[in-house]
Design brief:
WD40_repeat_dom_sf, repeat, JINGUBANG-like, F-box and wd40 domain protein, 459 residues, 5% helix
């Protein structure tokens, strides 16, 4: 089927790297827009101010159904209206920490984690543990939908979390990456085992004038240190290299074994909002300058060096998020115009199409199996099913009262439907909550049938 040319997609003016509240600003401010030459804040500026200070509502009406006028589709597939699934009859029990909704075999909300301490900016899931980061500087750890443990950084709200074996890497507003490890004597105790860059490396680097680079007008800084907020973290396939993207327009490459900064890549002309390790030794970066760039990793003796390869996208609106699917065959890109572009590895990274399902900026992406999840400033999460190179929208998850800022996906080890695996999706929002969804990859008509059977007790 013929695809719409990428250049025909309507463009909007960039509003820069939209993300994170500034600690110096009023706590009622949801998002501090990093503006470029022009600004388009329409996606979030129209967000009702009354929702900013409201507590999480227990009203779960229309959690996973779009309005009749909302079409979710890929330009590579036939437009499809996602099914309506009403969960208002679900029993709900409340506690100070979490709310639980009855489990379903089909797509639906199964729980909500609420702790009034700040907006949720980052998530990471590992086994039965969920790590959440917020602007309170705390990293909370949840197990079985209950608070299990936690630890706190000295400064810098938590903007990114990535897990590598027994270590947890966290990226912060103050430009530092912190490394944590659980105590061998107590699973509830986590200790900080490092900060990137290390103090020793920073002092050593600062002694050499050649290690200073100009970061702003009349301001220099040593090249091994981010001088602005960290926006994204990604780990190489062999877990030996950590990549950190920053609003300072650079990507830094760290050796995970000794936390040494190996390289600083001047990647973009504006804030870097996302970096992700891809396939075939490629690294992808997305920026507020509207570009998606490809970097090639090469070994040079005992050293690793990165070289610019190509630009996949060059648009006026900001690139906000990137993700590579588990099969490493597709790259997805979310933008401030609400679109999700994708490229296909099998076709030498040719543009595959555009997924249109949101009314505002796409703030986060994740993938699992043949499903793609897009979270947006419109407070919704679109669930897309990939069939070949075509995508259909299975459902729209509704329940947040604020922009969906981050997601994490784990395989559900419960019952399968027709042999298809189900997934648990965690979504963090600027409404200060994390919601937990069970998502089925089965077609919408089958989910509707399961709903009917559940309501009438048929089999």
């Amino acid at each position: 089927m013929a695809m719409e040319d990428q250049s025909s997609v309507p463009r909007r003016q960039t509003f820069g790297s939209m993300l994170q509240s500034d600690p110096n600003h009023d706590q009622d401010e949801y998002i501090n827009f990093r503006t470029s030459n022009t600004s388009d804040q329409s996606g979030l500026a129209n967000y009702d101010h009354n929702h900013r200070t409201s507590r999480l509502s227990s009203d779960y009406n229309m959690m996973i159904s779009p309005s009749p006028s909302e079409e979710c589709y890929s330009l590579s597939s036939t437009p499809y209206i996602a099914p309506s699934m009403d969960l208002t009859s679900s029993p709900l029990s409340k506690s100070p920490w979490s709310s639980h909704v009855e489990s379903y075999l089909y797509t639906g909300l199964i729980g909500s984690l609420v702790r009034e301490e700040g907006h949720i900016y980052s998530l990471a899931a590992s086994g039965d543990l969920l790590y959440t980061g917020s602007d309170s500087k705390n990293i909370r750890i949840w197990k079985n939908q209950k608070e299990f443990a936690g630890f706190k950084s000295n400064s810098g709200l938590v903007k990114a979390i990535i897990i590598s074996g027994e270590r947890i890497f966290t990226g912060h507003q103050d430009g530092k990456v912190r490394v944590w490890k659980v105590s061998p004597n107590d699973p509830n105790v986590y200790r900080r085992i490092g900060t990137l860059p290390t103090l020793k490396a920073y002092i050593k680097s600062s002694m050499n004038p050649n290690n200073y680079v100009e970061v702003r007008r009349n301001r220099n800084s040593v090249w091994i240190r981010h001088f602005d907020a960290i926006s994204s973290l990604s780990m190489s396939e062999d877990q030996n290299l950590l990549y950190s993207a920053s609003w300072d327009k650079t990507i830094k490459v760290w050796r995970s074994s000794d936390f040494k900064c190996l390289e600083s890549i001047s990647a973009h002309e504006d804030a870097v909002n996302s970096v992700v390790v891809g396939f075939d030794g490629l690294i992808f970066s997305g920026s507020a300058d509207g570009t998606v760039k490809v970097w090639r990793r090469e070994l040079q003796g005992n050293k690793t060096k990165h070289f610019f390869s190509q630009t996949l996208l060059n648009q006026e609106c900001a690139v906000t998020s990137l993700v590579v699917d588990p099969s490493s065959n597709f790259l997805y890109c979310g933008s401030s115009d609400g679109f999700v572009n994708f490229w296909e590895r099998a076709k030498f990274l040719s543009h595959g199409g555009v997924l249109r399902g949101h009314k505002s900026a796409v703030l986060c992406l994740d993938t699992a199996g043949n499903l793609v999840f897009s979270g947006s400033a419109d407070t919704n999460i679109c669930v897309w099913r990939r069939e070949g190179c075509d995508h259909i929208c299975l459902s729209v998850l509704k329940g947040h009262s604020g922009p969906v800022k981050c997601m994490a996906v784990e395989e559900d080890h419960g019952p399968t439907i027709n042999g298809d695996r189900q997934f648990i999706v965690y979504s963090g929002s600027l409404d200060k909550s994390v919601k937990i969804w069970r998502v089925s990859p089965c077609p919408p008509h089958m989910q509707a049938q399961l709903q009917h059977q559940s309501q009438w007790g048929t089999s």
